[in-house]
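Lab notebook, bench 4. The sequencing result for the construct came back, and we need a structural model before the next group meeting so we can plan mutations. Quick request posted to the team channel:

Model the 3D structure of this chain.
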Amino acid sequence: MAGSSEILRRAKVYIALLHYPMYNKRMDVITTSITNLDLHDIARASRTYDVDGFLVIHPSENQHNLLREIVAYWQEGYGGKYNPDRKEAFELLRTFYTLEEALAYIEKETGKKPLTVATDARVYPNTVSYRDLKTRIKEEDGVYLILFGTGWGIKKELMEACDYILEPIEKGRSYNHLSVRSAVAIILDRLLGEEWYL
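Done. Here's the predicted structure in token form:
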């Protein structure tokens, strides 16, 4: 049964976990590795907030083999029988090699070209506030793909190519290094949760 947050919004919302192109702490462009905990925690947060799809994007075939093993365990293996709630959350997960493939999948599924929303702990000049994006999701009949980076964040050129860049979670803090799992949970709550935040 759909939650109340889904009833209150008109737009469809997908999220993507990107592993390339990412920065490392020296600001080199790298490909990061799949992390088991990211998959579990983000899938559960996605299901809690009625996200329409959780897309994991990685260019490496070896990492896709790992993804298939993890998903199969929770969808078809003992994990799904032991923990049906986890199986339900993993039903939202789809895997892709490129962002372009993920965008094409969403457009085919919804019939609409998704608007991309980048997230980052850094401040960019063309940011959108949580209040503004929450209002758009609630009132407009569109499709959004929210991009979450791993490592030290998404490459600048990809960020700037997105339709929107979401403001940092806590831009005024002296320490701003949340795990992607924590960031996803906070951002989904602000955008798709109850109105208390506003």
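The radius of gyration is 16 Å.
Will bring this to the meeting.
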